[in-house]
Every structure is written in structure tokens, then in C-alpha cells.
Design a protein that fits this description.
Layout lengths: L8 E6 L6 H14 L4 E5 H7 L8 H20 L3 E5 L5 H12 L3 E7 L3 H6 L5 H6 L21 E3 L6 H13 L3
Parallel strand pairs: 1-3, 1-4, 2-3, 4-5
Length: 179
């Protein structure tokens, strides 16, 4: 199906660093594009580099970054587009603000990747958790800064026990379910 046959939708993947957001986003986008659906990807790291490079990792700036992502996603959804967001987005209020910005124009599917911290740390290819535990990185989500689990997630997936294909299938089903 082409994107014109769908109303606009944002899939917002949230979870700790190493929870599987980018892996799932890549697989989800590949499947959607294989079906002829154009997709806009808003990866938290990429957005920080190109749209929010002046921001720190203070709570205020993290919230502002998520509001920016929500605004951009809402604009794409307003035109019937599909957006896949992959961002830690640790705070409930900012995620709900992003939801409100998108839902003015279309659907918002919040997916909490509830992968346990120990698993995320074991997957830590960049060594960020080790650096945070050593005191080299302050305010690291999950170590010395909180991650507030979503109260209104449409899906909760633990990637340590749910295979990639099943995770993507569950997200696709939630995207295509009637609003």
C-alpha cells in the first residue's frame, strides 16, 4: 500500500540506551518501504546532531528536543506521512507533549521498549554505561538520571525476550489497527 492509502501515523520508540530502538526502527522502516510506504525517520542521535546541536542533556533541553521531534513528526503526519521516531525520551511529560503535537493531525503509537537495564548495559557497544558508572558521563539515563516508564504506551516490548521479527510484527499490527 502507498502512504496515500494510510492516514498519517507516528511510531514513537522509547526506552533506555541499548533497548533496541534503532534496530527495531531499521527493520520496521525496511518492511514499510518494501511495501511501498514512504517513511520519515527521526532518530534521537541524528536529530541532536542536525536540529538540536545547541542543546545540553539537562532535563529542560531533553524535553525541548522531544518537543521538536514531536513538532516535526506532527507536520509529516499532517500530510498523511508515516514517521518512525527512535529516542530515549526519558520523561513522561515530554512524550505526552509529543503525542499531543502528533495527534492534532493523525495517529501516535507509543512503543515502550522495556528492555531491562542489565541487558542494555550488556549490549553497550559505545561503552556509555561503563563511562557513566565510572563518573565520566553525568546525567546518564538509567544510571544517575531517571527513565520514567510510559503510562500510556500502546505497546510494551522487552527486546531481550521478544525476537526482532515479532517486535516489528506487533508494531505493524498496532499501526494498522483502527484508531
Amino acid at each position: 500500500m502507498s502512504s496515500t492509502q494510510h492516514g498519517g501515523v507516528t511510531v514513537f520508540l522509547t526506552g533506555l540506551s541499548g533497548a533496541g530502538k534503532s534496530t527495531i526502527a531499521d527493520a520496521l522502516v525496511a518492511g514499510l518501504e518494501a511495501d511501498g510506504r514512504a517513511v520519515t525517520v527521526l532518530d534521537g542521535d541524528v536529530v541532536r546532531t542536525h536540529l538540536s546541536s545547541e542543546l545540553s542533556f539537562s532535563r529542560e533541553h531533553r524535553d525541548l528536543n522531544i518537543r521538536r521531534i514531536g513538532f516535526v513528526a506532527g507536520e509529516v503526519v499532517r500530510h498523511g506521512g508515516t514517521v518512525v521516531v527512535a529516542a530515549i525520551a526519558p520523561y513522561e511529560q515530554a512524550r505526552e507533549e509529543a503525542r499531543a503535537l502528533v495527534e492534532r493531525h493523525g495517529r501516535f503509537v507509543l512503543v515502550h521498549l522495556a528492555t531491562p537495564l542489565e541487558v542494555c548495559e550488556a549490549r553497550d557497544v559505545k561503552g556509555l554505561y561503563a563511562r557513566a558508572r565510572a563518573g565520566e558521563i553525568a546525567g546518564f539515563t538509567g544510571i544517575d538520571d531517571p527513565y520514567e516508564p510510559p503510562a500510556r504506551a500502546e505497546l510494551v516490548i522487552d527486546t531481550s525476550v521478544t525476537p526482532l521479527e515479532e517486535s516489528v510484527a506487533r508494531i505493524r499490527a498496532a499501526m494498522d489497527a483502527p484508531a
